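QUALITY CONTROL LOG
STEP: pairwise intake check
CHECKER ROLE: data steward
CRITERIA: each record must contain a sequence immediately followed by its structure tokens, with no blank fields

ENTRY 1 OF 2
RESULT FIELD BELOW
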Amino acid sequence: MNFRQNYIPRALDLPSLLARKSYFLLGPRQTGKSWLIRYTLPEVKIYNLLDSSTYLLLSRAPERLRQELRPSDNLIIIDEIQRLPELLNEVHLLIEEKGIRFLLTGSSARKLRRGGVNLLGGRARMLRFHPFTTLELGKHFELTRALNHGMVPNHYFSDEPDLDLEAYTGTYLQEEVVAEGATRNVPAFSRFLKVAAHCNSTIVNFTKVANDAQVPRTTVHEYFQILKDTLILHELPAWKQSRKRKPIASSKYYFFDPGVVRQLQGRIYTDGTTEFGEAFETYIFHELISYTDYRTHEPLYFWRSTSGFEVDFLLSDHTAIEVKASSTVSPRDIKSLLALKEENTTRRQICVCRESSRRTIHGVEIIPYRDFIEELWSGELD
């Protein structure tokens, strides 16, 4: 079967975006950036900085971008731009003088965020790329597979996901952390990574993580920043607008893929377990963050009061979302949504679950997760 027959269309319409503006497209390794480019922009000139000859040529003479420009070139792709941030000066010049649009892809934002790097002064927008979504997988989607394999394309369809996931985390340590010089103490970072995986979907106790990983607390903060910069971890800020109940201000953290978390935790997600519920929550977060990044760019939060009420997600300030992996939702499961409802700020309160049909309890909508995902991607939650 050839490439185009194998390809699963993605939710991101790159040609339409690039018709108007240059973009940084940043996402973890193997999420499908290269496949998306090959399928949707097959005729566009690409400079792949993972190719050693291309890297050496442009590192010695960045002006070759200008010298090799053809009259027909109105869009140019530079893959893995974080390997050669100095090239952005040439990119800036070509945007200004020639009106060329660029797609600048990468698997890390670390070097791009360091002082002195030319980020094109707003001439290119930042866009995050994610693993498969339920919408993209369509008939191929299976929940248990998504939670255990993860939704990175190669892993989702793998016959040996454990081996592939183990190799993936090893590649991450080697290529993203070591090659970029993010830390010199790889054994310490490796210990930290496994401890951090057990903090997925939680408010992190940095002191406990430091003790468990056997590293200083200040180092833990540095390591969490490395995970964010290399696009492995998302920080979910707290919603602080509640007035009746005092909110906490600390963030929660989610890994970008439930399969990667599972491998780092050394677990199998079995229906009915606490771990399965945590993975299901991570999966719903993935759908929400993918949707907001690709479509609306709305902020995403969570809410927790000092008295212990907690709602998993708030989409901007209009929709509150609690996630339960249960196939039967009880009034007790929605008590935090009811507490937040008293604030009179959110228009909708939703409990996403695995029930078979929709219903309403005290004004809270109980929605099966497949219905919720469909409603999300159709824009009905905006």
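ENTRY 2 OF 2
RESULT FIELD BELOW
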Amino acid sequence: MLYQLSIEPMTRLMRAADIQQRDVVEQILNLSPEAKADLWEMLKLNLLDENRSYQYDFILDNCSTRIVDLLEATGSIELGDDTYASSYREMVDQYVHARSWLDLGIDLVFGSRMDDVPDLRTRTFLPVFLLEILDEAKGADGMPLVAQKRTLAEYGLPRSQDGLPMTIPIFWVLSLVTILFTAKGLRDKSLVGPTRFDRWMFGFVGATGLFLMGMWFFTQHWVTAANWNIAWLLPSHLVAAVVWKRWAGLGSYLRYTSYLTFAVLLLQLFLVQPIPPALIPVALVIAFRLWAVSGSRI
């Protein structure tokens, strides 16, 4: 994605912050006249038409990290000690936990690299962490980098919200209903093979896995690479849904992929990237349904 440096009046920024209910904190930096002049020249250089657009990276190169880039280029910053132990995913979760569908989408699409623990410099990808890190940083003269700080707008919104994300009970209810109907079909022998419901379900699961594979291998977003959710959201399910009963080996395929999905569920504590909590019941339904409808074709 191409992002672009732009200029706007402070009044417009404050008006947008009010509409979006976003806190605004001003930090006045302790910079020498020479550093200020260098910083100003670099900003003007970045505003040139040939420089103002850049390939955005959610973690490594965004509007927040570029502030540290400029300060480092002027030799104006010395970062503090690094004692943080949370992963990228845990950092982001603090701000999206209350927005459960967004939280679910991020957990699903971001790959295992988001479970790494970033260093102090890399944590500046989130503006709030940039604010905290600059508070602890030193300037070129060894004095605190931030000379003054004041809050220009504050809305009292919590960083995170405790409690159960709404997606978890929703998926558990739907999954339990599906499992109960499947168990009933097995008991009274009315479930004699894959149904149209299964074809649609496995087609959707396979399409989701294919999307995750595309984000891994065919984009430049490293945060979506190494996404091991495709171990249970198998892209091959889409092929099975298209070919379906014309495939003589469909029953065996359903059975062996059910074993794989059950194994992924059982090995949660040992996986590089565990299943997002809200989707554990979904993975359970997929595994159970694969096993249940495979029996009549083996």
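INTAKE CHECK: passed for both entries
DESCRIPTIVE NOTE, ENTRY 2: The chain has two domains: 2-82+119-153, 167-297.
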